[in-house]
């Protein structure tokens, strides 16, 4: 197995396993269809996974409604956002070559839309089109055609209307997408773990983010696993579980540990290693996902969130600095008890990932992520910017510009390979997300990356560089790249790219 240092894991958003989140209180959605209110799920109850919708005969058709709902959090009635009455929304399971049709009804008071994060699908028309606006009360029919060779893995969906993204995701709008393996990987069971965070005020509502929170990227007081407070999972010794983990937090990095258990990482985002990596911790930037195998060892272990230092903002350290026991947060318990089970079949080898290090590069460019003093942060998609910083506060830019939906920032040649230097001049980490086309990480801080690592969210540490290569194949059209600290995206740290 290639040697991945802990620092490399932190920078690249990938290898290791641990837990990084802060806070912790359960979040159970109860859509009220009667006068009876379901009780909150108490701490330590069994993990509850979102309902699953599976494709049949190559098609999955989904009606998805985003709306404010009365929900119960730790015994309190609060108002939050949800897809189809649940937080998270339903898990969508598809296969390569499938057609995923989603009819989105916007029951919110603000405009919205839908992004299928990480899927390699067309950005045009009613595909993964970031320039669609679904007005309050309106609907839009999306259709995503997955290529026959689409990578298996963990993906997710969430709103992406500029100026409203952070508020809507923070409010509860997110759900997992699983693209199944063509050949199953032996496991005793599979679990979907969507990790998110939220803040509630004394009135049981989600307060507006402050200017400082927008500058640094908000982190909620409560950290949730499938909307629950420290749920429990049980297994028998020797059982191998497959955990599909999504970091659905707006800004929080997750440094995940499950000490005492055997962990093997299949991949991060759409990237799959040729052989599973034995790991101790996994670091997920906002938007990253992990495909993890957990083999049970007798005893009780705790999935913990350890602090992650993502830099300084206004002289304030974000994430609490180095990890200490006092800063660790229990996210879930894993209880392994009973008789040993028979040895599970070996983890099969995976296809050798595509490697662009020897590819012909047609263009080289640099994207500079910066934060500085500025006025109001540019034009959005139809007037109301939602949560822009504005008013002389910090501006968030790429190559000195804030997002403008009417401007093309980057034009690439379809069916070409480009080499991008991602430069972060700011004192905060910025996780960069490119829609449609995944990125191969080639170099970080001037040092070559020895393993083949593909991700669609690549962390750029504060005052550092990461070099990636991108194959702009299969799909032409216009989409975006941006910081996945969603407050930074809403404040202008996003650019428009077209492949033609």
Automatic annotation (TrEMBL):
Keywords: Metal-binding, Oxidoreductase
Transmembrane segments: none
Key word Metal-binding present: yes
Domain (Plastocyanin-like): residue spans on this chain: 69-182, 212-297, 395-498
MF GO annotations: copper ion binding; oxidoreductase activity
InterPro entries membership: Cu-oxidase-like_N (IPR011707), Cu-oxidase_2nd (IPR001117), Cu-oxidase_C (IPR011706), Cu-oxidase_fam (IPR045087), Cu_oxidase_Cu_BS (IPR002355), Cupredoxin (IPR008972), TAT_signal (IPR006311)
Superkingdom in the source lineage: Bacteria
Entries under Pfam families matching the protein: Cu-oxidase (PF00394), Cu-oxidase_2 (PF07731), Cu-oxidase_3 (PF07732)
Name of this chain's protein: Multicopper oxidase family protein
């Amino acid at each position: 197995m290639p040697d991945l240092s802990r620092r490399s894991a932190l920078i690249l958003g990938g290898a290791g396993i641990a837990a990084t989140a802060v806070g912790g209180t359960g979040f159970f959605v109860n859509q009220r269809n009667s006068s009876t209110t379901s009780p909150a799920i108490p701490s330590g109850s069994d993990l509850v996974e979102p309902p699953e919708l599976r494709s049949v005969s190559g098609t999955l058709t989904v009606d998805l409604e985003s709306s404010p709902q009365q929900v119960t959090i730790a015994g309190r009635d609060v108002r939050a956002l949800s897809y189809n009455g649940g937080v998270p929304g339903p898990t969508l399971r598809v296969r390569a070559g499938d057609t995923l049709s989603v009819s989105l009804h916007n029951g919110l008071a603000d405009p919205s839309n839908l992004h299928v994060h990480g899927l390699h699908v067309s950005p045009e028309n009613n595909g993964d089109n970031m320039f669609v606006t679904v007005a309050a009360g309106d609907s839009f029919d999306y259709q995503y055609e997955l290529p026959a060779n689409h990578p298996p893995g963990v993906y997710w969906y969430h709103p992406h209307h500029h100026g409203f993204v952070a508020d809507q995701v923070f409010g509860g709008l997110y759900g997992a997408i699983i693209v199944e393996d063509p050949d199953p990987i032996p496991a005793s069971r599979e679990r979907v773990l969507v990790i998110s965070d939220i803040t509630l005020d004394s009135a049981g509502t989600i307060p507006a983010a402050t200017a400082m929170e927008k500058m640094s990227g908000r982190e909620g007081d409560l950290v949730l696993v499938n909307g629950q407070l420290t749920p429990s999972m049980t297994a028998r010794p020797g059982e191998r579980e497959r955990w599909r983990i999504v970091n659905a937090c707006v800004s929080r990095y997750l440094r995940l540990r499950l000490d005492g258990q055997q962990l093997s990482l299949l991949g991060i985002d759409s990237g799959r290693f040729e052989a599973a990596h034995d790991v101790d911790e996994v670091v997920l930037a906002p938007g990253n996902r992990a495909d993890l195998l957990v083999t049970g060892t007798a005893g009780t272990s705790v999935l913990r969130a350890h602090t992650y230092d993502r830099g300084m903002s206004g002289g304030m350290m974000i994430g609490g600095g180095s990890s200490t026991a006092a800063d660790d947060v229990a996210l879930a318990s894993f209880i392994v008890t009973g008789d040993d089970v028979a040895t599970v079949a070996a983890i099969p080898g995976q296809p050798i990932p595509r490697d662009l290090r020897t590819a012909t590069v047609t263009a080289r460019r640099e994207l500079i992520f910066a934060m500085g003093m500025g006025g109001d942060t540019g034009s959005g998609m139809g007037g109301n910017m939602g949560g822009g910083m504005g008013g002389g506060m910090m501006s968030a830019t790429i190559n000195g510009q804030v997002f403008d939906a009417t401007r093309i920032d980057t034009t690439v040649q379809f069916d070409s390979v480009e080499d991008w230097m991602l430069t972060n001049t700011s004192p905060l980490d910025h996780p960069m997300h490119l829609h449609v086309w995944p990125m191969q990480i080639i170099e970080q801080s001037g040092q070559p990356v020895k393993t083949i690592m593909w991700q669609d969210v690549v962390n750029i540490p504060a005052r550092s560089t990461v070099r990636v290569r991108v194959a702009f194949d299969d799909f032409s059209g216009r989409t975006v790249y941006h910081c996945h600290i969603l407050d930074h995206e809403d404040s202008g740290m996003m650019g428009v790219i077209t492949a033609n």
